[in-house]
Amino acid sequence: MDLNLLPEEEEYRQQVRAWLAETLPKVMAERRARRISGIEWSKKWQLQLYEAGYVALAWPKEYGGQQLDTIRQFIVNDELVRARAPGVIGAQAINLLGPTLITFGTEEQKRRYLPKMLRGEEIWCQGYSEPGAGSDLASLRTRAELAGDHFVVNGQKVWTSRSRYADRMFALVRTDPAAPKHRGISYLLVDMKTPGITVRPLVQMTGDRGFSEVFFDNVQVPRENLVGQLNDGWRVANDTLYNERNLGGAAAGNKQVFNRLVELARNTKRGGAPLIKHPYYRQRLVDFQITAEAMRLHGLRQLTDQIHKRQHGVETMVNKLVGSELTYDMTKMALELEGDYAPLLSGEERAPDRGYWPMNLMVGMGLMIGGGTSQIQKNIIAQRGLKMPKSPD
Ligand SMILES: Cc1cc2nc3c(=O)[nH]c(=O)nc-3n(C[C@H](O)[C@H](O)[C@H](O)COP(=O)(O)OP(=O)(O)OC[C@H]3O[C@@H](n4cnc5c(N)ncnc54)[C@H](O)[C@@H]3O)c2cc1C
């Protein structure tokens, strides 16, 4: 097997790298100057990336994409992580909802929503989880009743990331309470400005108000906003979840965290010697490196499957499980290396590595939960991947 890029792909990689080297310093300087709000700045950055041709390269041309091959998208993602470029504000929409709409949406839905999604003109949030319906998502109770040309939605979502400023939500609702729980669910696109929607922010331990509770009180949603068939939302929802789990485990991201950890071990001394020389830490670093490399190769195998349009299995659950746990374990080791200085956050004068690691630990805990917990990924890998029997309840 030849894992190298073709000469024209390598040339493309250099082109992306050069663009980032020239553009990123200016973009980051603007962010530091804080002349515009964080959200406006993030939208502008997404538009800049899109106009340079680096967002959703493989999407069909008629919906704003370039219909390029998956390898080019892979190269762009890799280079963005390598350059430590900020993520795009519309990532959830582009990576989760977008591909689902391309598969299940009506022509009108695709033309109406996809181009604005790419340009960052409309921000989306994901309305899946509810109190009592997280891991057991199919138990969701938010009700949508069909009344002529619209649905009337009542209920509550929780942990809805970005809902504080999102323009729209892709939501799962119960449309047939009498049907078995997986069969009475539908997938709706909701305008967040519709009367009857209340968003109540939740404060996370990072101090961030990244997600909220969202309440629906007789909210009217046009019938044409249904994605897929009525009561067939579970199938549509799983397509989106598949994309989400793929996102969670980006191997390039793990590699960057690993490189940063090695730097920290090199620069942190105890008893006069850098900790990277200590056999205990060296052993752990090598273990992380082996896992990160295995994930990189796992990613390349998935890329090959995508290129050959092969049916996917549980590979994305492996990405999500191993990727999020690896980042978390590496972060814990970094905090051990930092010793007593570990709790100092960004902005504190004596914070090692600019306070990156304690924040990463708090964010990393969330990554092992969001999009399905590690335990749930293990259950799916065991049952669907390894064909192990389901445990009796
Ligand atoms: C950072 C972050 C962002 C999020 N963003 C969104 C979002 O934008 N939209 C959205 O809809 N949701 C979002 N969520 C919610 C997320 O999807 C849920 O938190 C997750 O699915 C777990 O559900 P829960 O919190 O209800 O926990 P529970 O399902 O109550 O689980 C509690 C514990 O029990 C374990 N458990 C449960 N069932 C089993 C089982 N069968 N076998 C073994 N162990 C089990 C779980 O692994 C977990 O450890 C987000 C969560 C986080 C942390």
Structure report:
- It is a single chain.
- With 393 residues, this protein is α+β, with helices and mostly antiparallel strands.
- Helices cover 48% and strands 15% of the residues.
- It has eleven helices and ten strands.
- The strands form three sheets. A four-stranded mixed beta sheet has the order 1-4-5-8.
- Helix 1 (7-33) packs across helix 3 and helix 8 (279-307) runs antiparallel to helix 9 (315-338).
- The chain is globular and about 75 Å long.
- The N and C termini lie far apart (45 Å).
- The model has no long low-confidence stretch (mean pLDDT 93).
- Residues 125-129, 134-135, 159-161, 211, 366, 369-370, 372-373, 375-376, 379 line the site of flavin-adenine dinucleotide (FAD).
* Mean pLDDT value: 93
User: From N to C, what is the helix and strand string?
Assistant: HHHHHEEEEEEEEHHEEHHHH
Instruction: Give the termini separation.
Output: 45 Å
Label the structural class: alpha+beta
Low-confidence runs: none
Find the count of extended strands (DSSP E, 2+ residues).
10
What small molecules does this complex bind? flavin-adenine dinucleotide
DSSP summary: helix tally: 11
What order do the helices and strands come in, and which of them pair?
Elements: H1 7-33, H2 38-51, H3 70-82, H4 91-104, H5 107-118, E1 124-127, E2 143-147, E3 150-161, E4 168-174, E5 185-191, E6 197-202, E7 211-222, E8 226-227, H6 233-248, H7 251-267, E9 269-270, E10 273-274, H8 279-307, H9 315-338, H10 356-367, H11 374-385
Parallel strand pairs: 1-4
Antiparallel strand pairs: 2-3, 3-7, 4-5, 5-8, 6-7, 9-10
Helix pairs in contact: 1-3, 4-5, 4-6, 6-9, 7-8, 7-9, 8-9, 9-10, 9-11
Bound molecules: flavin-adenine dinucleotide.
